[in-house]
């Protein structure tokens, strides 16, 4: 009887002992779940942060990223400089990304120089990045889509270009075959006039080889 009680008690104890042995297990499962949960929470919050960052960037610079203005400059170097800076302003007014303009290679100088041969292309893009998004080339996927070809009216004012923005309804790329149409000098908002000045006097520097040659 005593031995059977002992057996009973030992089996009672062993039954009792089971939960404390399981407990650490359960706790580690809880800890693991908690870790996984916080990891998920962390990743999610990171994602939200990047989403917010991108949104802020787009609000700061309202240009639509996927609308492109491609330009073929025309005339001599001086005329091309002013034309290029007018197109920088036009891209700003029309909320477009400007593709670095092509230079005239035929009509005056028979000069095969590219934009980057004459101007410091990286400096041009970088120094205007707060105003207009400029890229070196049209993205590959945009090359084959139909584009609007537009000879802009000469000496037109801001409202004309705002009106031209309706072309974005049908096209993602507007090609300007001549850059000498010129923006009106009067009645342009001050920020657009300032942008043209910044472009002419700060953004369009000669390329390093020309600068070096000039200093010799
Ligand atoms: C350019 O974007 C701004 C801000 O989103 C908007 O107010 C303006 O009307 C747009 N301009 C044109 C010409 O679409």
From TrEMBL:
Query: Topologically, how does it sit relative to the membrane?
Result: Single-pass type II membrane protein
| Molecular-function GO term, any one | glycosyltransferase activity
> Any stretches that span the bilayer, and where are they?
27-45
Q: Name one GO cellular component term.
A: membrane
Q: Where in the cell is it found?
A: Membrane
Which InterPro entries does the entry link to?
A: GDP-Fuc_O-FucTrfase (IPR019378)
Major location category of this protein: membrane
Keywords linked to the UniProt accession: Carbohydrate metabolism, Fucose metabolism, Glycoprotein, Glycosyltransferase, Membrane, Signal-anchor, Transferase, Transmembrane, Transmembrane helix
User: Its pathway?
Assistant: Glycan metabolism
**Top-level taxon of the source organism:** Eukaryota
**What GO terms in the biological process aspect are recorded for it?**
fucose metabolic process
Family the entry assigns? Belongs to the glycosyltransferase GT106 family.
UniProt name for this protein:
O-fucosyltransferase family protein
Q: Which organism is it from?
A: Colocasia esculenta
């Amino acid at each position: 009887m005593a031995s059977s009680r002992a057996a009973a008690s030992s089996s009672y104890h062993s039954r009792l002992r089971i939960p404390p042995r399981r407990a650490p297990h359960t706790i580690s499962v809880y800890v693991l779940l908690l870790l996984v949960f916080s990891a998920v929470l962390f990743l999610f919050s990171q994602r939200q942060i990047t989403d917010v960052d991108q949104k802020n960037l787009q609000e700061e610079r309202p240009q639509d990223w996927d609308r492109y203005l491609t330009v073929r400059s025309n005339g001599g170097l001086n005329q091309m400089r002013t034309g290029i800076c007018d197109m920088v302003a036009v891209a700003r007014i029309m909320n477009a990304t400007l593709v670095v303009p092509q230079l005239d290679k035929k009509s005056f100088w028979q000069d095969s120089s590219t934009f980057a041969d004459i101007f410091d292309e990286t400096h041009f893009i970088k120094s205007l990045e707060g105003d207009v998004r400029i890229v070196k080339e049209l993205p590959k996927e945009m090359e084959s889509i139909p584009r609007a070809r537009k000879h802009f009216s000469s000496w037109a004012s801001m409202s004309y270009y705002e009106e031209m923005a309706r072309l974005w309804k049908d096209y993602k790329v507007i090609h300007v075959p001549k850059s000498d149409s010129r923006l009106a000098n009067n009645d342009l908002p001050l920020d657009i006039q300032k942008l043209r000045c910044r472009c002419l006097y700060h953004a369009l520097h000669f390329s390093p080889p020309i600068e070096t040659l000039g200093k010799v």
